[in-house]
């Protein structure tokens, strides 16, 4: 078995586990080639001959894994998400183990499944139309501001950086949203809209319960709260239980819809993110599902 490994050396986790993973592959008789993701090198160039390999390992954060999946979309090349970043939500949603030796076993077992990807369309600050592929979620408003403000905190606090950022953004900007979901129009007020492909988020919270990365649809989560304190009762309940604070008393402030194609406008125009990365863009945005566009290596049932 020949395996191509893309290695993002700048990702948050240390190198000891990665070396353990490589050693386990060697014991399993795997012939592998490691290529480092370096500044100025295009991911597409590193993956140009990927179909010649039996599998591709994306060793990095969610951005590395998602970028690899989109670069190989519709190629049927199986991809293993090696969780080497801060949140590692793709690996979490695919129920992949975190131990390097166990990840090697999953790769050797060779079980894979088709998963959905999605694409986000927008205009950059100069007005030029752009497109970015995402795998987990894209959004505008509270979640995008939280992600932007957590950038300087993640290196010190890891996933806890998101919590600290949320606390610092307790008074979120309220906006008016106009949504088009497969041609149906909705108008809502709130602090954000998320378009979700993979539902499990940081700290094990469920932003879109029941979201399935293989159903050919996106979950559209409208955050109708007017403050972060009243954001989503279920999320707050889960988080409170995790830190031993009990259940806060808040009303229902969440609306979840499902669609294949989504258009979002907001007044005022709010910040934008995709797969945990801040984007230099503002609504209007369009998101579209790409059913079964990637093949992910997953644990055996």
Written account of the structure:
There is one protein chain. With 301 residues, the chain is α+β, with helices and mostly antiparallel strands. Helix content is 25%, strand content 35%. It contains 9 helices and 16 strands. The chain has helices at residues 16-27, 43-46, 62-71, 89-93, 100-109, 142-150, 154-157, 160-168, 233-243; strands spanning 2-7, 31-36, 55-60, 78-83, 112-123, 129-134, 137-141, 175-181, 184-190, 192-196, 218-223, 254-259, 261-267, 272-274, 277-279, 285-297. Strands 1, 2, 3, 4, 5, 6, 8, 9, 13 and 16 form a 10-stranded mixed beta sheet that branches. A 6-stranded antiparallel beta sheet has the order 12-11-10-7-14-15. Helix 1 (16-27) runs parallel beside helix 5 (100-109). The protein is elongated, with a radius of gyration of 19 Å. Residues 152-169 and 242-251 have low confidence and may be disordered.
List keywords for this structure.
ten-stranded mixed beta sheet, 301 residues, 9 helices, alpha+beta, six-stranded antiparallel beta sheet
Order of helices and strands: EHEHEHEHHEEEHHHEEEEHEEEEE
- Provide the gyration radius in Å: 19 Å
* Low-pLDDT runs: 152-169, 242-251
As a percent range, the share of strand residues is 25-35%
Give the number of DSSP strands: 16
Number of H/I helices: 9
How far the N terminus sits from the C terminus, by CA atoms, comes to 22 Å
Q: What portion of residues is helical?
A: 10-25%
What is the arithmetic mean of pLDDT?
84
Dominant shape: elongated
């Amino acid at each position: 078995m020949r395996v191509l490994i893309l290695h993002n050396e700048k990702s948050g986790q240390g190198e000891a586990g990665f070396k353990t993973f490589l050693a386990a592959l060697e014991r399993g008789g795997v012939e592998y080639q490691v290529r480092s993701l370096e500044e100025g090198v295009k991911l597409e160039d590193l993956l140009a001959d990927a179909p010649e390999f039996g599998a591709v390992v994306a060793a990095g954060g969610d951005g590395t894994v998602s970028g690899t999946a989109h670069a190989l979309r519709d190629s049927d090349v199986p991809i293993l998400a090696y969780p080497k970043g801060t949140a590692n939500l793709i690996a979490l949603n695919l129920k992949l183990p975190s131990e390097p030796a166990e990840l090697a076993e999953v790769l050797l077992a060779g079980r894979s499944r088709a998963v959905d990807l999605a694409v986000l369309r927008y205009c950059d600050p100069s007005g030029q139309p752009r497109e970015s592929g995402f795998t987990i979620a894209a959004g505008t408003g509270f979640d995008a501001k939280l992600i932007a403000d957590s950038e300087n905190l993640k290196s010190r606090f890891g996933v806890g950086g998101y919590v600290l950022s949320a606390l610092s953004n307790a008074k979120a900007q309220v906006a008016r949203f106009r949504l088009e979901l497969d041609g149906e129009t909705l108008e809502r007020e709130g602090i954000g809209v998320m378009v979700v492909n993979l539902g499990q988020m940081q700290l094990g919270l469920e932003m879109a319960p029941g979201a399935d990365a293989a159903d050919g649809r996106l979950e559209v989560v409208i955050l109708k709260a007017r403050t972060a304190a009243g954001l989503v009762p279920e999320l707050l309940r889960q988080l409170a239980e995790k830190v031993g604070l009990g259940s806060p008393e808040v009303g229902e402030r969440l609306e979840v819809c499902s669609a294949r194609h989504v258009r979002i406008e907001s007044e005022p125009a709010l910040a934008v993110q995709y797969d945990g990365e801040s984007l230099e863009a503002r609504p209007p945005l369009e998101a579209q599902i790409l059913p079964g566009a990637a093949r992910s290596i997953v644990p055996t049932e």
